[in-house]
Amino acid sequence: MKLAVSVFCFFLLFACQSTNGHSSVIEENKMIDVMAEVYLLEMHYQKNYGAPVQYKKQLDRALKILFSSHGTTKASYEKSFGFYASKHEKFIQMNEAVIQRYNTMLLEK
Question: What is the CA radius of gyration of the chain?
Answer without folding.
Answer: 20
